[in-house]
Amino acid sequence: MQELKKSGLRKLGMGVYDWFEYRLGLGKPAMDAAAHPVPASSASWWYVFGSAATVLFALQIMTGVLLALVYTPSASEAWNSLQFLNDKVALGWFLRALHGWGSDFMVAIVLIHMMQVFMFGAYKFPRELTWIIGVFLLLLTLGMAFTGQVLRFDQDAYWGLGIGASIASRVPLIGAPLVHLMLGAPIIGSATLSRFFTLHVFVIPGILLAGIALHLLMVLRLGINEWPMPGRVVRKSTYEAEYHKLTEKEGIAFVPDGAWKDAIFAAAIVLAVMACAFFFGPFGPTGQPDPTIIQTAPKPDPAFLWIFAVLSLLPASLETPIILIAPVIIIGAMLLLPLVAGEGEKHWARRPLAVLMVTVIAVSLGIFTRLGITTPWSPVMNAWSSDIIPPKLLHEATPLERQGALVFQNKQCRNCHEVAGQGGQRGPDLDSVATRLTEDQMVRQVLQGGGNMPAYGNALSPSQTTALVAFLKTLRGNDLRPAQDASRALGNINPPESTRPGEQIPSGQSHLSKESPASGKP
Amino acid sequence: MSEHESEHLTGDPRPEENKLQSEARPVSNSKNDPKDHSRRVFLFKVSLLINGAVGVVLAVPVLGYLLGPVIQKKNGYHSWITLGNVNDFPEGETRLANYRNPSTTQWDGQTGDIPCWVRRVSGNQFQVFAINCAHLGCPVRWFSESKLFLCPCHGGAYYEDGERAAGPPERGLFEYKYRVAGAKLMINAGEMPTLSTPASSPSANFVPLEKIGCGSCKS
After folding, report:
1. Most exposed of A96, A129, A511, B163 (fewest Cβ within 10 Å)?
2. Mean pLDDT on A192-221
3. B219: distance to nearest CA of chain A, Å?
4. What is the C-alpha to C-alpha distance for residues A278 and A512, in angstroms, rounded to an integer?
């Protein structure tokens, strides 16, 4: 009886399925695609990043739609609506956190996916176009990250737009129209926010969806890349037959034999995003987007910190050419890679240049990102008023030297110069400045500047300069010998002082040599 | 026919189409001859052409709307704005001042309030600097003790007269044109200054207003 009931239910279910399938006709091709054979070797934990990126994109769409229920894309209200989401909407903070962390994870996973594809030679024939579309997907993902940061309409977003507009203004001939096109108005304001809202919510996600669909279809059509083996060389004439043979010989069904790893990794990633969102919370918003509040140190989101660092380290004369040309070269190289290197070895052991490139790029991105976090080039704006003068520097100091220490502090030297581990890192630390510069050199450096230091001639009176240099002369690190003026030493005019009483007066050019070159050996 | 039925069972998604085709074939001779075909091909090409033309016509307003901010007439953004009383700015000092951008919407909110640095050199001689660093637009801060403007983003530094002192900027601070009208200090502003967009209108008169205004009273 029960058997009968069961089979009746099953029949009903199958009937409903058939009704839809007869009209839609999607089930069979979908099942065929899911169960398509993949090389057993590619059912690996290394092959899970693409699907994880797709899952994260779906998460972003879902959380994005939910945030759009409350978010108000108006310059006067956006910031308030974010605060409202954080504080007043039930679980609004968590949805914001999910979307923010999801974005960081997505950028990271897309980059890892790209690195894996590169290292495994998966961009080679016949998957060149899959890679090229992938490059555009990376750029679109970064576009989402930047426009998303703008929608978090706070101080960082406002000044980030200023940086964007300033970069656009450097394009020759069409700089001004580009700035206006980007801002939508002569200044950063509501028109700008609406533009970025449109890009972030309609334009880029639409292109991303289409691009991902195409990317996936091509993976299905061309087959997943097999695990590379040293010596198994890709040739256009033979590759497809070899791949076909491989999937026939040791092929397994993608679903379920291969896909379980993707599914588990995707679940782990979503769980990780949820954990980060729960424990670390949403990003900002930081201060209000009010340009009259200038006590701010704007910084981009993690994905762009390395660019932030590069922009501050470029020499002024090279900046515009590099800003305009480097992206073209980098993106061009990524797009052309599969066309130039479409054949040959796939295994990393046979591609030392590829390994070197990935290592160098990864290390550079890491270093620049780290610099972007610490921003050693930025003056510490409050160091002069909040950092203490280390007491040991004032020990046994003359009144003049103490006065100099005050000048050092009041004239904001500390904002750029570290002493005893406190202060800015824009300029060199001054713990042992007196061993590097003579008194005259210090006076010149302070008054005239140079080597990326402004001149302080207008900001210092002669007595202040005297006091300041008197203080600087006491900064000799671990009681090292002070710098000497070699020419004066030679002429025996104004002989250098010794550091310890009773010490032999050094007279040479180098404080390492005890003998004067003039009186020395023949 | 039996072939069709077997397709039904396997769930061929387009049975109707197949049926139509197979049924149409025997009677189609009158409607499917090469003449008709070439006529339809021609009409199809005409339809493409018409759609192309409609597309071009449609593109004109679409592009006009999209590029609206770009093709706005020149100097349309700038105008003269009162910054405050001349005596609000002590001689020899540099003070922060705010103004409301001349072209704003209600929903621009706080973003329409723009700060600038006013340096009163002496008497009616001023220098009004844009807040935006000439490097990448971050807000510079004035340090009166060291007489420097410092940028928090990439460490650009400028002297009190706006000249570049150090860091990545390739030029000095952007400067607004100003007028002293009676007891009021006015500047010509309305656009975020960058390397290619000016702080003040290039055609704005740089002659202090007292001279223009007093042209009649002097005579």
Report:
1. B163
2. 96
3. 40
4. 60
